[in-house]
């Protein structure tokens, strides 16, 4: 069992500092839900090296549940 299993973290983040911190929380077992702005995290567009996605974005957001699609649906009313 990891030390933070059972902990829920809801994170509103982009860039470097907060994604790094929440990534460490996920690595320690926390369930991390990442909420992005409707346009998505700008780091998604840095490159396309990780199977068509930004290597930077994939590395810093591993172990998180992205909820950007919910934000998009809320914006469009769908």
Description:
- The chain has 78 residues and is an alpha/beta fold.
- It has one domain (8-76).
- The chain contains 3 helices and 3 strands; from the N terminus they run E-H-E-H-E-H.
- Strands 1-2-3 form a 3-stranded parallel β-sheet.
- Strand 1, helix 1 and strand 2 form a beta-alpha-beta unit.
- The longest helix is centred in the N-terminal third of the chain and has 11 residues, at 17-27.
- The radius of gyration is 13 Å and the shape is globular.
- The model has no long low-confidence stretch (mean pLDDT 86).
Overall residue-averaged pLDDT value: 86
The helix/strand class is alpha/beta
Uncertain residue ranges = none
Radius of gyration based on Cα positions: 13 Å
How far the N terminus sits from the C terminus, by CA atoms, comes to: 39 Å
Tally of separate domains: 1
Q: What's the helical proportion of residues?
A: 25-40%
Order of strands, main sheet, comes to 1-2-3
Order of helices and strands: EHEHEH
Please indicate the percent range of residues in DSSP E strands (runs of 2 or more): 15-25%
* Extended strand count: 3
Large-scale geometry: globular
Q: Sheet with the most strands?
A: 3 strands, parallel
Oligomer: single chain
The total count of helices amounts to 3
């Amino acid at each position: 069992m990891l030390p933070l299993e059972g902990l829920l973290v809801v994170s509103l983040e982009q860039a470097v500092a907060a994604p790094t911190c929440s990534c460490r929380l996920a690595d320690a077992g926390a369930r991390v839900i990442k909420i992005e702005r409707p346009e998505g995290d700008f780091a998604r567009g840095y490159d396309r090296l990780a199977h068509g996605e930004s290597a930077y974005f994939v590395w810093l957001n591993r172990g998180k549940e992205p909820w950007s699609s919910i934000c998009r649906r809320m914006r469009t009313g769908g």
